[in-house]
Amino acid sequence: MGVGKSNAKVYVEKQTGVSFKDVAGQEEAKESLTEIVDFLHNPTKYTRIGAKLPKGALLVGPPGTGKTLLAKAVAGEANVPFFSLSGSDFVEMFVGVGASRVRDLFKQAQQQAPCIIFIDEIDAIGKSRDSRYGGNDEREQTLNQLLSNMDGFDSSKGLVVLGATNRPEVLDKALLRPGRFDRRIIVDKPDLKGRIDILKVHSKNVLMHDSVDLEAIGRATSGAVGSDLANMINESAILAVKKGRTVVTQEDLLESVEVVIAGKEKKDRILGKEEKRIVAYHEVGHALVTALMKHAEPVQKITIVPRTMGSLGYVMQVPEEEKYLMSKEELTTRIVTLFGGRAAEKIVFDSVTTGASNDIEKATSLARAMVTQYGMSDRFGLIGLESVEDRYLDGKPVMNCSDQTVSEVDNEVIRILKECYNKAEELLAGNRDVLDKIADYLFTKETITGEEFMKLYHEVKGDRDPIKKAPEEPLRIEDGGQTILMDSFADAPGSEPDGQAERKQEPEDSITKNC
Ligand code: ADP
Ligand code: ZN
Fold first, then answer.
1. pTM for this prediction
2. Alpha-carbon distance 452 to 231, whole Å?
3. What is the pLDDT of residue 503?
4. CATH code 1.10.8.60 for 192-262
């Protein structure tokens, strides 16, 4: 090739060495793929009887759930070569280069069939040609080439194209027609059992102390995907070595859960005294509002040790049970809790900082979703003001209403947010004594557990119980509820919020968007 900049590389592995055993959980996906393994194993068994072999299947699911691993396992199980290429490499290439790469790929693969072609991030090539999504000549040419190759190749020798995406909605409909990517295999985030199994697979070759309880780790990692869990096991092994141990302990594992979720403790990032005081009040503000509200999840840990992923401190809340639905009261409580940080700053210092930017963003998207998607506002009631399919698009969401309504929606969102903020301020102002006491304590200790938090609360308030009790022991979590990390990414302007904690903050089906 030699011209211009091309990152698009075709990788070939003669033998992937991966089998279904290496993929934990994902039983349904494996079951659907077993059929493809059989096609590849023995194509003539099917062609003899007159059956047409499938040409393509889409693996659909969030990043890190094991789509690539599954595709490799298919090749490994069928003992055929694995050709792979990533759609995102095609972005920013010269016109024509992508198309020729696709042509080459199919040519090579056909010579070696039976085999698997795996196209990761297929949405980068296969985005709808509809101009709504912005045209791109290069991508269109590549896509057209892919379509013509999909139609052109002879599947009777056993050639299956697997595509992976987490945004199937944006794909050009032509890609999904019969004879192309007409099968869809869902590769979802693992549930509790899946997480435990993944932890087991990855700890197979790691020396673990007998007391290690992977189930407890599975419970503490709701929302984590396979790659997070693999990462946690590895981090824990590295931690153990750092601490001069020869086996991994439960403590190492728990610490690595936090490292993966919130980033490493940043030892060299020292907060000035005043800043540290603000952060302490901010975090305690969140925690105290939580303790004072009825529908909030118990506080598990509060820390003001800065983390590498941009947080200055955070509050960790662990729900008592797994939740799939959230009530209006719970959503409102979440918003009030999110405002606890800012409200504490305002009450104590009578000034505000940038520390709440992430809180505000999350609160806003929750409030907006309540109005436009969940039918939870008095003003509008039951009306779908925002299209669900559009949540997968890059740009602004499409509102299904007149411009006038859009501005009324804004007003309603503003009203909800104001009301929630006022509630947070009212709760904290009414409990200034506890706020001061716990913030002082956090300032010196830097990290406190939910238990310590409640103990301090009782020291000030006597026996009067707040609404929520602390969990009896840290990380004793019932069936994989969603761990909430408040503030894990709140930082100065410009810090990039990462998807990880974002996901954990929100009910499964509310995707952050602002318009
Ligand atoms: P995706 O292609 O969906 O983004 P990958 O297949 O690249 O995800 O997963 C990244 C890594 O995470 C894998 O190499 C593996 O170590 C780990 N992993 C993900 N899902 C699983 C799983 N179900 N079982 C075991 N390991 C997994
Ligand atoms: Zn905050």
1. 0.67
2. 30
3. 32
4. yes
